[in-house]
Amino acid sequence: MGEIQHEWLQELYKTIHCYKPQFIALHFQEVGGKDYLVNMCHAENFFWNIVSSEEMKDFDRVVSYVDNQFQAEDSFTALGSIYFIHRTLKNILQYDFNEKGFKMVSGQRKHVGSLDLVTTVEKEKFPKNFWPNFKWSRKGFMRTRWIIHNQGLDLVNVHLFHDASNLIACNSSPSIYSANRKNALRYVINRYLVNILTPTPPCALCFGVQHLSTSADVQTVKKDSSNEVEKIICEDKDNDHQVLLHIEEKLFTYVHQAVFREDNGRALLKYDNEATAFFDVILEEDIQFPPSYPYSEEYAKPTQYMNTRCPAWCDRILMSHTAQKCIHKRDDGEKSVIYNTVGSNVCMGDHKPVFLFFSLKTNEH
């Protein structure tokens, strides 16, 4: 894990050095990981190592929010958001939701805990009735509001629901999990039509047997004690019954895994359609990177996917129509928007972080 953390940080610093941003928004979900009772303190140390690092010394203002109150089951989201402001960026203000006004940002502001009394952030856990048939999880969202170069910007860190079972996800299209994600994201949008949502995992790739050979034989295995599906196995009848695809609740193995990496998985993007339901209010830059999840956590296998879930573009940056027009507004005609992953050839854990780089036009006179 130490090697992965070191490489993760180096890739982050390399990306920052390459693009030289003046404002950085780092949004994290599942702070502390699955075993957050044990790892929360390590996660916090990880954040503070970034803040105090030599590579970030020119960012003289830092605002951080970490929801680590796992004892508060009704409100704990395990979300973390850290904002870095470069010393050359002078005109920046942050909104106080209690006083309903903007204030200048100065120094380092570290907010760790329940965040309920912090007035510069809004945080909420999704209501339990959003998924009544599943275990209530830590999914939720966190919002901050900024003025940069006299332009307003809402930043929302959203963590949507995952596919708890590959088998249930195969039952219908869209799946029940897709419906849960749709309801949750619409809930956030209705709460406040945001300028930018970043990052959010609204989509799971719908990957069907149509990608398999025409000679594939699909077998459904059910449990002896019930009619419940236990596994789905696709074999190639013309190739000594080679197993092409094997799906169980927590297992997804596909023999032609390279299809997810070739041409950045472009051939499969047509199945990635959950976000299209929201294109009336939010948009996304063109995806030109492979599915961001679930990568192997083995240090020596940085480009290989784990056999746990169908690879999908689970990490996304969405924005309102107004925000997209704003980030594409340049006087010099040069392309200023980059949408990509960090550490494509380095082990970054099971998710490849996704970033959006853009330049705001200065409205100062």
TrEMBL record:
Coiled coil spans: none
GO BP annotation list: phosphatidylinositol dephosphorylation
Residue intervals of the Inositol polyphosphate-related phosphatase domain: 1-364
PANTHER family membership: INOSITOL-POLYPHOSPHATE 5-PHOSPHATASE (PTHR12997:SF9), TYPE I INOSITOL-1,4,5-TRISPHOSPHATE 5-PHOSPHATASE (PTHR12997)
SMART domains: IPPc
A GO MF label: inositol-polyphosphate 5-phosphatase activity
Pfam families: Exo_endo_phos2
Origin: domain of life: Eukaryota
SUPFAM superfamilies for the chain: DNase I-like (SSF56219)
Annotated organism of origin: Mola mola
Record-linked InterPro entries: Endo/exonu/phosph_ase_sf, INPP5A, IPPc
Gene3D superfamilies recorded: Endonuclease/exonuclease/phosphatase
Family statement drawn from the similarity comment of this UniProt entry: Belongs to the inositol 1,4,5-trisphosphate 5-phosphatase type I family.
Protein name (record): inositol-polyphosphate 5-phosphatase
EC id: 3.1.3.56
